[in-house]
Amino acid sequence: MLSLVPTPIGNIGDISLRAMEVLCDADVLLCEDTRVTKKLLHILKERYSITPKENQEFISLHSHNEKHFIEKLDTSFFESNVVYVSDAGMPGVSDPAQMLVDYCLKNGVKYDVLPGANAVLTAFVASGFVETQMLFWGFLPHKGKDRTSSLNSALNSGFTTVLYESPHRLEKLLNELAQDAPNQEIFLAKELTKKYQRYLRGSASEILQKLDGNFKGEWVVVFKANKAQNSSAITQKDIFSLDIPKKQQAKLISKITGENTKACYQRLLTLH
Question: Which of 1, 81, 184, 232 has the fewest CB atoms inside 10 Å of its own CB, making it the most exposed?
C-alpha cells in the first residue's frame, strides 16, 4: 500500500496524530529529500516520543528522478507499507506524487492520501478575498515571453489565483505588477506558520514600499479575482508597443482592464 503524508510547512505542531502513526508504521519512506525526512522524524521522536519501525528504508524520490523511478516499479514494491513525504506540505502540490498516484490507479495498487498542512489553502483563506472559486497556478516561468503570457493568464483567469514565487524573483514580480497591473489587489503571505509569518495586502506598489527591499523568506502570492479574459487577449505590453497616440492606448487598456480611461492616460504619461 502507498500512503501520501503531508508534513508541516513550518510549525512542527501542525503534524497530525494520524500522520505520525503512518510515518511510524512505514517500511519504506519515499522522500523528496531523505535528509529533511530523517530530520523531521528525529524532531518528532524528541517532541512526541514516537517510535518508528526499526530498519526503515529511506529512498530519494524527487521531481528529477520520479519518472525514471516509476518506469522501473513493480507492483510487488507496494506489498510493503510505503509512505511518500515531500519536504513540506501536501505531496502532489508543486511537489512529486501525482505520478505515483497515477501508477497506483493504473495498476490496482491500494493507496491513501492523508489531509494536512499546505500553503495554498492557508494563503487563500488568509487573503480575505471573497471570491471563493480558487485557481492554483504553481510557479511562473522564470523569464521571457512564457513568463509574460503565464502572468497575464494568471491575472485574468476569472478566479482568485494562488501562485508560489521564490524570494529572489519576488521583487521582479512586484515590479511587473506595478507597471502592468497597477490596480491589481494582491495578498502576500511570508513564512507561513513560522516565527516570522507576515501578511501583506494591497497593490504591488504599496507592498513594495512596505517591504522596503526585504524579500527574504518563502512567499505565497494571491491575486484577487478579475473578470476573465481570453488567454490569447492582447496585453498591456502589446498596447504599449503600438505606434498610436497615448489617448488611444489608454482607451484600449481601459477596455481590457476596466480601469478608468483618464487614470490609464495619466499612468501612461508617467511611464513614457
Answer: 232
pLDDT for 230 equals: 57
pLDDT at 24 over 60: yes
Q: Has this prediction a pTM greater than 0.70?
A: yes
With CA atoms as reference, report the closest residue to 22 among 74, 107, 70, 91: 91
- Whether 73 and 85 map to the same domain: the answer is yes
Q: What is the DSSP string of 136-182?
A: EEEEPPSSHHHHHHHHHHHHTSSSEEEEEE-HHHHHHHHHHHHHH-T
pLDDT grade for 265, boundaries at 50, 70 and 90:
confident
Any idea which residue has 520520479 for its cell? Answer: 66
pLDDT in tens, 53-73: 999 999 999 999 999 999 999
Distances (CA, A) of 189 to 40, 103, 125, 139, 200: 24, 34, 11, 15, 7
What is the total count of domains within the chain?
3
C-alpha cell at 227: 473578470
Question: In the prediction, which pLDDT does 227 show?
Answer: 77
Q: Are 158 and 209 contained in the same domain?
A: yes
Nearest to 29 by CA among 91, 106, 74: 91
Q: Residue 28 and residue 55: Cα distance in Å, rounded? A: 9
3-class DSSP state of 251: helix
Residue ranges making up the domain that contains 145: 120-232
Same domain, 257 and 272: yes
Specify the higher pLDDT residue, 57 or 249.
Answer: 57
31/129 same-domain check: no
Q: What is the CATH number of the domain that holds 26?
A: 3.40.1010.10
Please state the rounded mean pLDDT for residues 215-230: 87
Nearest residue to 82 via CA among 12, 31, 17? 31
